[in-house]
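I have been asked to look over a protein record a colleague put together. Alongside the sequence sits a line of tokens, each denoting a local backbone shape. Please read both lines and tell me whether the tokens look consistent with the sequence. I do not need a full report, just your reasoning and any doubts. I have pasted the whole thing underneath without changing anything.
>
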Amino acid sequence: MRVAFVQTSPRLGLTSRNLQETFALIEKVHEADLVVLPELFHSGYAVRNRGESEALSVSPDEMTDPVQMCVDACRGFNTAIVGGFLERDDSGKLYNSAWLVGADGVLATYRKVHLFNHEKDIFEPGDAGSLPPVTRVGGAGGGRVGMQVCFDWIFPEAWGRIAWGEGDGTGAQIIAHPVNLVIPDACPLAIRTRAMENRVFIVTAGRVGTDPGPEGVIEFRGGSRIVAPDGSILAAGSDDRPGCDMATIDPAWADDKYVTPRNHVLKERFGVTDGPEPS
């Protein structure tokens, strides 16, 4: 299976321009079975008030321009896409969401639970009590994909729950992670730990450039990575330029949770002692 990140430089509110840049980079990794885009890739990040946010928001049930672009890419390149969307639900509430998009539209939705700083003034948090969705992509040779969004990286609990699933082999093998990073170096280090402690692949997709935030210009720091279950970096993006990269992975590696013949990292974390140990 091939997985890829796309790292863009969106401009706040310039949706058409942002979609054109994103599609051009998706074309460069068109052989990937899964492509991960940044957080709020279509709108820009630093929405300054609720009115601006509402104007840029989209619904997963409507074929808006951002959804259509992803669907067109999925159909044209036979891929699946995870991207960060400024979501509006039927009641008008706004969420910082990640959607898994396929050829027929939005297949799964995750709403960011841990809102960062001024996001708390705009967005509703996702439901921390529900198990985030895990969806299989890539056909027979593909893998099970879960989602987290940006600042969720600093809270390890949900990552373990996604990898564990129902404890029956249905947890995520790959966690797609759209981000807009502003804290230098922290997330790229942390996701190596998240990968190791859960024995999963992580595809983090960031952005570069600046946004005119509510308290001054915000500078974004890239940070795109593809990380293996042992914490090794399979691909990395620039800290200051748009770009993309791809890696070939074996999702089955993420089903081996043993770091020694007697230490299954998720069974021990969740207090499960039954079941055979590997020979």
User: Anything to note?
Assistant: The CA atoms of residues 60 and 106 lie 6 Å apart. Residues 2-269 form a domain with the Nitrilase/N-carbamoyl-D-aminoacid amidohydrolase fold (CATH 3.60.110.10). The chain has a mean pLDDT of 94. The chain has one domain: 2-269.
